[in-house]
Amino acid sequence: MLVRYDHHTVWLQGRRALLLTYHWNAAPLENQSEPLQFSVSFTFASGHPPAPPEIQAVVDGLGLRAV
């Protein structure tokens, strides 16, 4: 579900973050080992669209913390 929202913004710990999933396109998802990992960036150029509410709900449910 997240792979389609590469370079969309989400909220993480009260801050906007850029969702990065583009590396998942290197191979078919069914051929990739789990757990699938993605990144977020708190520094990015403006103009990226916000992820829809259902994607934000997935991110919220992951319990992510800033590293």
Write the layout of secondary structure elements.
Blueprint lengths: L8 E4 L2 E6 L18 E3 L11 H9 L6
Antiparallel strand pairs: 1-2, 2-3
Task: Explain what this protein looks like in three dimensions.
- This protein has one domain.
- A 3-stranded antiparallel sheet has the order 1-2-3, with helices on one face.
- The chain has 67 residues and is α+β, with helices and mostly antiparallel strands.
- The chain has one helix at residues 53-61; strands at 9-12, 15-20, 39-41.
Tags for this entry?
1 helix; 67 residues; 3-stranded antiparallel sheet; alpha+beta
In short:
By secondary structure, the protein is an alpha+beta fold.
| Domains, number | 1
| Structure summary, number of beta strands | 3
Distance between the termini: 24 Å
List unreliable stretches of 5+ residues. none
* Class by SSE composition: alpha+beta
> How many DSSP helices?
1
